[in-house]
Structure formats: structure tokens, C-alpha cells
């Protein structure tokens, strides 16, 4: 039986203490999940606190027909949005990969969550894959292997500084992905703003922006197929 893939989502509904809504970018979960489920993998959903996952309202207008169909399914509504698992409920040995979905909310509750960090590090150390898309790279920033940052010297990508400026969020986000990657001596690779792009460096697979979720899934599926 194939091991499962763990999808990580945010619990953060606002930009810090500002009264401006954010949360999960829906397509970053749905497009990834649709691809890996089609390839025969099961998924579970976890969030830093467990339970409710808010959706960034702006993301709904970018959701395609397939994403909206998945969004309306009772099982998805229950497991991915209303009752996500908490880190304490996760056994890392059940998973072959972990995937950090984005949305601006993750910038507040992904980087320092020790429960999620332990899960991701365990999955990586057992030969699994650590993956992310867009702002989901926030969950990778503080992961460590053998005392060093996981992304040190590795090629990664995520939502770029230019894309943050274009999105009008440069002044309200708590950090910039490119700058934080550089501080950890990661090699931040970027392509044209808002174009699909994903990169693999060993068991690390990352995507640049909301349009890169399927590209991350495709690289992960291909990598997992080689191991079977």
C-alpha cells in the first residue's frame, strides 16, 4: 500500500492583528490534491492548531472548475477545512511526503510551529519528501537536518519579493521569503512573476506561486514513482 501525503494548511485568518482577511489560498491545496489523488495517493490534512482552516477570499475567484468541485465535497469540507488534524495526532511514519500549502496566513503560523517541524524533519529523515508552494516555503525556513537548516545550500523557490510587491502586501507581511532564504544560505531560484514554476533539489520540491501547485505535485509524483 502506498504511504500517504500530508497536506499542511494555515489557521491564520488575518494579516497579523489587522482586520484584513487572509488564510489558505484554496487552489494551492485543491490543485495539488487533485493531482496526487489521481496518481493513487491518499492525503491527510494538518494545521498548526488543528481544526478550522480559513480560506483567503481572494483565492476563490482564481479557483478553476475542478477545484470548486472538490471544494464542495463533504469529505473535503470536513477534513481539509473544518476539522484538520493537529500535529500531535500525526505519526510521521505514515507519510511519504509533506506538502505545505500557502496563502499569506502561513507567514504567521508556519515558521515557528515545533510540532510541524518535528513531523517534516522526521519524514525527511526517513527518506520522504518535503514540499511546498508559494508562501508555504515559510514552513521550510526553520527545518533542520544534522544541525543545519534544511534549505542551506539547496535550490528552492517561493513567493518572490517582486510578487509580494505586485500583490500589494510588501508592507504588511512579517518577512520576505527571498530574504529569509538568503539568511539561511539557501539558493532562491525565481522565474517570471505569476508563472508556474517548481524546482526539485533531492528530496526537496518547491513551487514559486499560486499557479505552481500542480507543477509541485507532478514533480513529487514522478519522484515517488522512481522509488517504487
From TrEMBL:
InterPro entries: Class_I_gatase-like, DJ-1/PfpI, Prot/Nucl_acid_deglycase. This is Intracellular protease/amidase. Transmembrane segments: none annotated. Keywords: Hydrolase, Lyase, Protease, Stress response. The keyword Lyase applies. One of its GO terms (biological process) is proteolysis. It holds the Pfam family DJ-1_PfpI. GO terms for molecular function: peptidase activity. Belongs to the peptidase C56 family. HSP31-like subfamily. It comes from Lactobacillus colini.
Amino acid at each position: 500500500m502506498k504511504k500517504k501525503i500530508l497536506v499542511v494548511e494555515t489557521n491564520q485568518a488575518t494579516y497579523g492583528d489587522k482586520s484584513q482577511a487572509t488564510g489558505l489560498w484554496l487552489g494551492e491545496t485543491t490543485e495539488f490534491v487533485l493531482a496526487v489523488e489521481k496518481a493513487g495517493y491518499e492525503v491527510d490534512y494538518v494545521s498548526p492548531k488543528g481544526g478550522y482552516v480559513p480560506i483567503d477570499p481572494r483565492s476563490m475567484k482564481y479557483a478553476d472548475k475542478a477545484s470548486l468541485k472538490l471544494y464542495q465535497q463533504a469529505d473535503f469540507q470536513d477534513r481539509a477545512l473544518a476539522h484538520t488534524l493537529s500535529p500531535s495526532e500525526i505519526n510521521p511514519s505514515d507519510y511519504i511526503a509533506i506538502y505545505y500549502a500557502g496563502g499569506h496566513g502561513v507567514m504567521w503560523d508556519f515558521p515557528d510551529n515545533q510540532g510541524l517541524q518535528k513531523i517534516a524533519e522526521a519524514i525527511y529523515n526517513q527518506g520522504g519528501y518535503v514540499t511546498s508552494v508559494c508562501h508555504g516555503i515559510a514552513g521550510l525556513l526553520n527545518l533542520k537536518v544534522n544541525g543545519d537548516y534544511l534549505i542551506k545550500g539547496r535550490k528552492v523557490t517561493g513567493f518572490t519579493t517582486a510578487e509580494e510587491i505586485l500583490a500589494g502586501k510588501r508592507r504588511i507581511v512579517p518577512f520576505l521569503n527571498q530574504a529569509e532564504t538568503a539568511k539561511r544560505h539557501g539558493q532562491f531560484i525565481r522565474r517570471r512573476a505569476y508563472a508556474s514554476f517548481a524546482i526539485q533539489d533531492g528530496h526537496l520540491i518547491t513551487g514559486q506561486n499560486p499557479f505552481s501547485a500542480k507543477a509541485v505535485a507532478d514533480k513529487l509524483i514522478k519522484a515517488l514513482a522512481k522509488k517504487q
